Amino acid sequence: MSQYHTPVLLEESVGLLEIDPAGTYVDLTFGGGGHSRRILASLGPEGRLYGFDQDSDTRANRPDDARFHYVESNFRFLRGALRLRGVGQADGILADLGVSSHHFDAVERGFSFRGEAPLDMRMNRRGGLTAADVVNGYDAEALTRILGDWGELDTPWKVANCIVRARGAARIATTADLVAAVKPCTPKKEEAKFLTKLFQALRIEVNGEMEALKMALEQSLKVLRPGGRLVVISYHSLEDRLVKNFLRSGNFSGTVEKDFFGRAQAPFEVVTRKAVTPGAEELERNPRSRSAKLRCGVRKTNE
After folding, report:
1. Separation of alpha carbons 46 and 43, rounded Å
2. Taking phi first (over 0 means left), then psi (-120 to 50 degrees means alpha), and beta for anything else, what does residue 131 get?
3. Residue where a domain stops, chosen among 167, 192, 207
4. Do 119 and 256 fall within a single domain?
5. pTM above 0.85, yes or no
């Protein structure tokens, strides 16, 4: 399983779940199954674990364990998928929002600018929109918006115009075509950082990642029992901001609402006042963990 993906902040994240051996848990991002296996190791015979993943490649990583239930679905359908399986409430939910090493290493999936592949980037290959559809079909204004919002690029309009000019000559069909298209506006000294942000923006748009995350977080309030725990590992500021605000306030603006008596109405008790990040040993072992931030909240009992 380590060849598929090395789980990040494994002990820290599973530790924060404070697992009840007889409890019901959800791994929203099954992937290589590293976090799921660690959760199963803490569960007793009565415990149950539901692992979500929309990528059919992950089926091969399923543990042979009667307590584990594989859900081939985007986690935006969290509540409905659990109810279909007779699960009303869970004791804990874990989400590791990072793209698995498998997706970057499987060059043919088009997630990486290192190597040439069709410009795809779909996590769910049954999905419709590809990255090629975005770069060839979105107008300059829409491209500017996603490159600024999802990629946090400094001059998204310049990059959007580069793409529009290049596709006027020929369709941008591969990762190499895209790298060539943006070459005129790629900073020489920070090429890798720039391309990472560009590819991130397209991947988020193709997979509707921000919307899916918002939907899953909102549903966690319905799924978690009082005292249940939400544990999330994020990898860029967009995700981390959503998670931090939601744990603090139950909404995405971060504004804590108060009742008539001035008491805060936040649905979670925040456990991680400051995000947990990988230690030196993990960073050395797995450099891809460097941007990880772990946050946890406990569902309040008075909601």
Report:
1. 8
2. alpha
3. 207
4. no
5. yes
Tell me the pLDDT band of 303, cut-offs 50, 70 and 90.
Answer: very low
- Other Cβ atoms within 10 Å of 82 Cβ, number: 22
Question: Two tokens at 196?
Answer: 């990472």
Residue 5, domain member (yes or no): no
Number of domains in the chain: 2
Q: What's the CA gap between 189 and 175, in Å, rounded?
A: 20
Say if residues 215 and 155 touch (Cβ distance below 8 Å). no
C-alpha distances in angstroms, 250 versus 110, 163, 184, 230? 35, 38, 43, 12
Query: How far does the chain reach from its first CA to its final CA, in angstroms?
Result: 39
Q: Give the CA dihedral 288, 289, 292, 296, nearest 10 degrees.
A: 140
Q: Please check the confidence at residue 157 and state whether its pLDDT lies above 70.
A: yes
Residue 186, C-beta contacts closer than 8 angstroms, at least 6 positions apart: 179, 194, 195
In this structure, are 133 and 279 located in the same domain? no
| Structural domain boundaries enclosing 193 | 109-207
> Angle, nearest 10°, between helix axes 237-249 and 209-223?
20
- Residue that is last in its domain, among 178, 207, 236: 207
Task: Say whether both 122 and 178 belong to one domain.
Answer: yes
Which residues pair with residue 230 across a beta bridge? Answer: 93, 297
Residue type, 100: S
Q: Among the residues of the chain, which ranges form H helices?
A: 10-16, 34-42, 78-84, 101-105, 131-137, 140-149, 156-169, 175-181, 191-207, 209-223, 237-249, 280-285
Among 107-111, 186-190, 214-218, name the one with the lowest average pLDDT: 107-111
Spatial contact of 31 and 102, defined as CB atoms under 8 Å apart: yes
